[in-house]
Design goal:
heterodimer, A: mainly alpha, disordered N terminus, B: alpha/beta, 6 helices
Chain lengths: 205, 246
Amino acid sequence: MDVAAPEDTSEHIHDTELARIVRVNEEIKGIVATAFKINLMALNAIFLAKRAGHAARGFGVLSNELRRFAQDLTREMTQLREMTANTVSTVTGVVQQKRLNGILDEAVKRCPEPVSGEARVQQRGHEQLADKQGCLSALDKRLRRSLDDTAQLVELGGVLARSAKIEAAYGGNFSASLMQVSSDFGDVICLIQESLERLRHLRLT
Amino acid sequence: MKHARCIFDEGEHQWFAIVRDPDKPGYIIDTNEYIIRSGAELLLCDPGGIEVFPAVFSALCQVCDPQALKAVFASHQDPDIVSSLALWLEFNPDLKCYTSRLWTSFLPHFGGCAETFKSIPDEGIEIDLGSTTLHALPAHYLHSSGNFHLYDPKAKILFSGDVGAAMLPEGQDDLFVEDFDQHIRYAEGFHKRWMGSEKAKNQWCDRVAMLDVDMLCPQHGAIYRGKDVHRFIDWFRELEVGVASN
């Protein structure tokens, strides 16, 4: 293709509703992928704690908590993904309606004489747009709430990661590997928190 | 809601099929759209009509970043193929549209400007996408007078537009053709009426029979794979086309 791939494609995309929802969707896809890593880490933590046995009893309790947290996060992420998919669909509907209304408004503007029923047709188009925008606002609110819930859940994950680090220190011979697992866990939690922070600044409407 | 399903995956090189829209109104023909990804670039085959744009756009978003979409390929000029063009351009005004030279002054009626359209000469062209090269193959008069199919030699996939299409009854939602004899009954009437030239049909059969094709992906209905690809070519060769009861 003779179109050079730009360094940052987003520069080439106008900041429309579609562009905004795409950014939200991509950010959420990133969080979902990261949440999947947490699942694997939690499993790894449980196996490590089992191998460490008595020395890592405290860590073992925490690793079970981490596993539960990972499952809750995955469930939350599934809901979030479905919600975003619906939102993408609604935004595209709004764009579609706006374009149709624009064409209709332009046609009416160009008519030298008033056309019978034109006001009704225009009004219907604008009502349909208002309906779709109303749906979008409702979806936006639900998405925000869901993101707040996720942020609270991730906060708990952060607490668990810090506690796991403390317990790892008492892990005897396994202390180093337990510490590594806890640090990795903490890093991933930080990544998700950064993504959530970015999402807070992205509005759909 | 429509969903994108991966039909070919070699890491950096993928094909997705966006098929079956349960929410689509019954009076609109169901369409398949195909996404080809090579590295950081995407191309969308026959992006579809204005009415299905929300479903197609959101399905694409499930599996890819739409900001990577560099071009669309319009096999011909029909509304179910490319009337959504203006909406794709709303998202990315730099998007290119590959289409037959016959249609580059007609398709702007759906949207776009002179820079949007990449004119394909009658003999076809090669289209670079990421690290792969796709071949636009002539399929004129099958059914449109300026008609192209898209062949990916790396994936061994042929996007065949309306050739291979089947008007499947409600509830037959398989992605792939599972029973050729059963399936082809739903393709027969369509091909007899929509394919306008015996000569063009035979040329197409000769050309495609020479290619290495694992999957033949039509714009309506299910995908032919494996032995069914050549079964379809043989069936098509034998079929009398350009038939209408006047």
